Amino acid sequence: MSQNHGTCSLRPAAHPPFRRFSMKHFFKTAAVASISVLALAGCSASTGGPAAAGNDLTPKGLVNAGQATLCIDPEYPPLEYYANGSGGDIVGFDADAGRALADYWGVKVKFEVTSFDGLMPGLQTGRCDMILGGLYTSPARLQVADAAPIMNAGPTALAAPGLAGDLKSKLDLCGRKVVAQAASSNAATVAAMGDECKAAGKAAPTLSEYPKTSDTVLAVLNGKADVLVETNVAAAYMVTQNKGKLEVAAQVFDPDTQFGVFSKKGGSLSPEIASAFKALKADGSLGKIAAKYNLDPTILDVK
Questions:
Q1: Digit-coded pLDDT (tens) for 137-183
Q2: Do domains 21-153+257-299 and 155-249 have the same CATH topology?
Q3: Which has the closest alpha carbon to 157: 146, 148, 168?
Q4: What is the structure's pLDDT at 86?
Q5: CB atoms < 10 A from the CB of 196, how many?
Q6: Distance from C-alpha of 37 to C-alpha of 67, rounded to nearest angstrom
Q7: Spelled out in words, what is the top-level CATH class assigned to the domain 21-153+257-299?
Q8: How far is CA 79 from CA 47, 73, 180, 202, 235, in A?
Q9: 284: alpha, beta or left, given left = phi > 0 and alpha = psi -120 to 50?
Q10: Class of domain 155-249
Q11: pLDDT at 55
């Protein structure tokens, strides 16, 4: 059920399930450790600040005049999550990008908290102006909503610092012990490498799958696996929580998925959202937000 706590929240397919459900419980507990680094002070961080008085860039057609309303499910660090793990300010790349958008438009920002499966219904029933919440674009979603691209996603490799630097391509995973979450797209990616490794005269990776993402991290930390394959945005948070123990080998895989900012199909806000994020990308705002949450700014894809 959708939850509305005003501007200061108090509380949380056919496509491979890398988006959210596989990492939910790991991140809810891990998020607590990052409060001192990532938390924003007070509820004012969720309101767009005192500048929310409107300007020449303020678009028409907002669900609530003078306010940008975002449907969000704060269960997916480092894109969106609660600062203390279960309540307080919503932080993360998407949350801060939403604040930057509101400031650019000269309006306040409101986070309409909902479950993941309530995001698209919330948009379509007018509960919010947009979904900025780590939602990948797909033909099915683009049939019912517009989407402005914002970030490229896909699998990436994590390993101990001494090994991560030696991983330059997928073939460097051949013959190694690799771990991924069970039934995820990342596990499928590793499993599919057998023929490619064989063609290169190498052994296939030895894949182990665990039901919980936290267990895949422990497998590498405990030496049971050499490499962990995880989605790039999730990997960034894992490194934040395991500094000096895990590093990302970002060059191993190419991105294969795109996250978008969704708005009503054919709505007047769609071009306004795309234009605003182009400006925020051009002036460096999005890059700074990405770096704040340990995301590689090069994965930003705003056009």
A1: 999 999 999 999 999 999 999 999 999 999 999 999 999 999 999 99
A2: yes
A3: 168
A4: 81
A5: 14
A6: 28
A7: alpha beta
A8: 18, 10, 21, 37, 12
A9: left
A10: alpha beta
A11: 84
